[in-house]
Specification:
The complex is a heterodimer of chains A (519) and B (285). Chain A is α+β, with helices and mostly antiparallel strands. Chain A has helices at residues 7-31, 59-69, 113-132, 136-142, 193-203, 235-239, 262-267, 325-331, 337-362, 387-390, 402-409, 422-438, 465-472, 490-506, 508-518; strands at residues 79-88, 93-104, 148-157, 169-178, 181-189, 255-257, 288-289, 310-311, 373-375, 381-383. Chain A has 15 helices and 10 strands. In chain A, the strands form 2 sheets. In chain A, strands 1, 2, 3, 4, 5, 7 and 8 form a 7-stranded antiparallel sheet that branches. In chain A, strands 9-10 form a two-stranded antiparallel sheet. The radius of gyration of chain A is 32 Å and the shape is elongated. Chain A starts with 6 loop residues before the first helix and ends with a helix. Mean pLDDT of chain A is 63; it is low at 197-249, 259-374, 383-392, 402-411 and 413-444. Chain B is α+β, with helices and mostly antiparallel strands and 285 residues long. Chain B is 33% helix and 24% strand. Chain B has helices at 2-14, 44-47, 84-98, 137-156, 201-226, 241-244, 273-284, and strands at 39-40, 71-80, 100-101, 104-106, 111-114, 119-123, 130-134, 162-173, 182-196, 253-254, 257-264. Chain B has a 5-stranded mixed sheet. A two-stranded antiparallel ribbon of chain B has the order 3-10. In chain B, strands 4-5 form a two-stranded antiparallel sheet. In chain B, helix 3 packs antiparallel against helix 4 and helix 3 packs parallel to helix 5. Chain B is globular, with a radius of gyration of 20 Å. At the A-B interface, helix 3, helix 4, strand 4, strand 6 and helix 7 of A face helix 1, helix 3, strand 5, strand 6 and strand 7 of B. Strand 6 of chain A pairs antiparallel with strand 5 of chain B.
């Protein structure tokens, strides 16, 4: 077989397939970042834009892809798969899509490698660009950030579609025949997304009440996805220097000749579409996998590099669900290695704090009156001095960040070596809790000493929200609605009617003209 | 070594015109031909001052004058009035994404290099949909102009708001004087549009989502057709490049294309623009 293909062609073909695989992964992952992608056209070839398409290379993604490929190329039975999954703030995860780059045995000997195959791979990448915006996961990925994030994982070997649930659909992006086999790119995607998302979101309604509108920037803008730090899950990776991607410096084939006569026949060949599915030969390859996203162990999310499941957008926002503060604290991927070290010791604290704040949130009415009691141990209560808090004008003051300073001073709660990252997180969790609770209206039926509208404070302006509200709560009645205008009686009204009619009749023409313009 | 291999062959084929080995065209069957005002892609009038052209008339004879083998694809969408433009742009841009390359730069000995095509995502405002287009403002402007006129024609037609817009890829074939060049289409995409009017906001919201889903299906259909790798014009030599590609844009190079439209009135017959165009063409000769 190889005798038909010159060694130069064979080398070229391998190079094309390898870079095609890398670019495929880039396109797929970039399409799930949640941002719009924009690259510029350049009329002069730079020699480093593979397939004549401007597709940026995110180094981490290239690194992951190369790790997964481990120097091999997609071949029969060995497919490259990119798995896209969704992970909620509660730690549930679900596979959304599997993109498969497969190779089957159907060879096309006649085709010209350096020309036709290259151009068709380019066309296939364009198709991939279009199709990645069309599957259901795209819209989900554009809205990620608050309640969930989208993750990717690359593996090489046999395609595993079992995680997609029942009734998943497949869409074929395209095929390209080569002298060594036919490359097929396809996507299998989950259908029953709607059910999952409504179920999830019913359980944990967004407490902040922010609706992510199509026209509005997300309130938690993730910094540019091209910033490598966003992809790090621990501090270790920040320090890691990726092996220089030396092959991307290879000049890609951008030079063509006007076609030789043999070109004509090959460009007109049409291929039998290869059957979609797992590689035909089941060689029983173990899944060569460079990392695993294991929903059962949310801790693993934090440990990076060794495990896959690199989150695409850091969930910077502290998730406001109080029921799962503990889990959430684990799942924030931004915090570094310190975090995983601190996990065991802080778990107890977060638990205790969450318990107490849960108790608080249950009865907003009682907040101003009860003493904030925090459990620092199984049988130990430590009442916090309430006096200083109540003096503040802020409602729900015990949930204010000031709380944390007290916590910090308490050696029982904070072991001396506790990391910085923990406090701000807890602080923000608390403030989230308070703001969440503010939706519980303070106007309810218990005695209020003073009217304090939520989120407002009598600080700088003499006229604050509360004053404004009080002043304008009882506006005077409109004059036209009040009866005593000029003590005009009914009889006088009736008398003035004919005059009014006469005036209107004079202006009939104007009215008619006006009506005409409306039509 | 690799390059010299190509050069030898290139020299041989330089002189040959896309001639005998090309598939013999058959008459075009699609209803997409004719009608409406055609927009030229950076029309030949600008890029080739030497060719025989009349000012107003199309630069080449309309199809039907020769035998042509042209594949034709038809897509249908139902949209609300304010969604027309975005839906059309989404489909046209998706097609042109696949039918554009980077700019060719010919070097000596018949080799050429290709520029880079950038892409960008475009969110629709009135449809829950995002499409990818090539990063070329000129191309986007040209399409928007065409779609804008189509939309106005649809709105002004009264009737029940049905029409179709056609994107035709063609090749030019030089003919001897006094005949003007022939335009031979090799692929025609027709998008049939049905405009619906909705009563309230709730229906509009449903329409947003439904049309978004429909457009997703259309994109999948388009990609499927593109993947068949059927006839594409041979890559041209430098002298022939303007017969195959539109070289008038500065950052990308789509295949030569033209956009035309037809509005069907309530009887389902096309408007008299077809007749007008045929008369113009005959006079241009």
């Amino acid at each position: 077989m190889d005798t038909d293909l010159s060694s130069q062609d064979r080398k070229d073909l391998d190079k094309f397939i390898k870079f095609f695989a890398l670019k495929t992964v880039q396109v797929i992952v970039q399409a799930r970042l949640g941002e719009k992608i924009c690259t510029r056209s350049s009329s002069s070839p730079t020699g480093s834009d593979w397939f004549n398409l401007a597709i940026k290379d995110i180094p981490e993604v290239t690194h992951e892809a190369k790790k997964a490929l481990a120097g091999q190329l997609p071949a029969v039975g060995r497919s490259m798969c990119v798995e896209i999954s969704l992970k909620t703030s509660e730690g549930d995860s679900m596979e959304l899509e599997i993109w498969c780059l497969e190779m089957n045995e159907k060879c096309d000997k006649e085709i010209k490698v350096s020309y036709t195959v290259y151009n068709r791979l380019s066309l296939l990448l364009k198709s991939l660009l279009a199709i990645t915006r069309v599957t259901p996961a795209y819209r989900l990925s554009r809205k990620q950030g608050h309640e969930y994030v989208i993750l990717y994982r690359i593996y090489f070997g046999e395609v595993q579609l079992s995680g997609l649930g029942e009734g998943f659909q497949t869409v074929r992006v395209g095929t390209v025949g080569t002298p060594v086999g036919t490359i097929t790119l396809s996507c299998a995607y989950r259908i029953n997304l709607a059910f999952m998302s409504t179920r999830q979101f019913e359980r944990t309604p967004p407490i902040m009440g922010i609706i992510i509108d199509h026209f509005v920037d997300r309130p938690y803008p993730s910094s540019s996805p091209m910033h490598p730090c966003n992809y790090r899950t621990t501090a270790e990776d920040n320090a890691a220097v990726y092996p220089s991607v030396e092959d991307s410096q290879e000049v890609c084939t951008t030079s063509f000749s006007t076609s030789p006569p043999s070109q004509l026949s090959s460009s007109r060949l049409s291929y039998q579409p290869a059957a979609l599915g797992v590689g035909s030969a089941d060689m029983g390859y173990p899944v060569v996998f460079a990392g695993g996203l294991n929903a059962a162990h949310p801790h693993q999310l934090i440990v990076p590099g060794k495990e896959g499941g690199v989150p695409l957008v850091p969930s910077q926002s502290p998730h406001a669900t109080q029921a799962d503060q503990e889990r959430m604290a684990m799942c924030t991927p931004l915090d570094g290695a310190h975090y995983s070290a601190a996990t065991p010791s802080s778990s107890e604290d977060t638990e205790t704090v969450s318990n107490s704040s849960e108790a608080k949130s249950g009865s907003p009415h009682d907040i101003l009156e009860t003493i904030f009691v925090r459990k620092v141990g199984a049988f130990v209560n430590k009442p916090i001095n309430q006096v200083t808090m109540a003096n503040l004008d802020i409602p729900f003051a015990m949930f204010a960040p000031k709380n944390i300073e007290l916590e910090d001073n308490d050696p029982m709660v904070n072991p001396p070596d506790s990391p910085e990252t923990e406090s701000p997180l807890l602080g923000s969790l608390h403030s989230e809790g308070s703001s969440g609770n503010s939706t519980g209206n303070t106007h309810d039926d218990f005695v209020m000493v003073d009217f304090k509208p939520a989120f407002s404070k009598d600080d700088i302006l003499p006229m604050d929200l509360g004053t404004f509200y009080r002043e304008f709560q009882n506006p005077p009645q409109l004059s036209s609605l009040s009866i005593d205008i000029g003590a005009q009686s009914m009889a006088e009204d009736l008398d003035s009617l004919p005059e009014k009619l006469a005036v209107h009749e004079k202006n009939v023409k104007e009215f008619d003209a006006f009506v005409e313009t409306l039509q | 070594m690799g390059i010299s291999r190509w050069q030898g062959q290139a020299r041989g084929s330089w002189q040959s015109h896309p001639g005998p080995a090309r598939p013999c065209p058959e008459p075009a069957l699609s209803a997409a031909q004719g009608g409406g005002l055609p927009w030229r892609a950076g029309s030949a009038a600008e890029s080739q001052p030497g060719s025989v052209l009349a000012g107003r008339a199309p630069p080449c004879l309309p199809p039907g004058h020769g035998a042509m083998n042209c594949r034709s694809e038809v897509l249908e969408v139902s949209v609300e009035g304010r969604q027309i433009e975005e839906a059309m742009l989404a489909v046209l841009h998706t097609i042109l994404l696949h039918r554009s390359t980077g700019k060719f730069h010919y070097k000596k000995e018949g080799t050429y290099s290709i520029g880079t095509v950038g892409t960008q995502d475009v969110d629709c405002d009135f449809i829950d949909f995002t499409y990818v287009r090539v990063s070329s403002e000129e191309l986007d402007r040209a399409l928007r102009k065409a779609v804008g006129e189509f939309k106005d024609a649809l709105r002004n037609s009264g009737g029940d708001g049905m029409g179709q817009i056609s994107l035709e890829f063609y090749q030019k074939k030089k003919s001897r004087w006094p005949f003007s060049d022939e335009c031979i289409p090799w692929e025609v995409w027709t998008i049939r549009v049905n405009v619906v009017s909705l009563a309230n906001e709730q229906e509009r919201q449903i329409c947003r989502e439904k049309v978004g889903e429909k457009l997703c299906e259309k994109v999948i259909n388009i990609v499927e057709v593109m993947n068949r790798h059927e006839y594409l014009p041979k890559m041209p030599t430098q002298s022939e490049v303007d017969n195959v590609f539109d070289t008038g844009l500065k950052d990308v190079q789509p295949y030569l294309y033209k956009i035309s439209y037809q509005i069907t009135d309530s009887l389902g017959t096309s408007v008299t623009t077809t007749m007008r165009r045929l008369i113009k063409d005959t006079l241009a000769l």
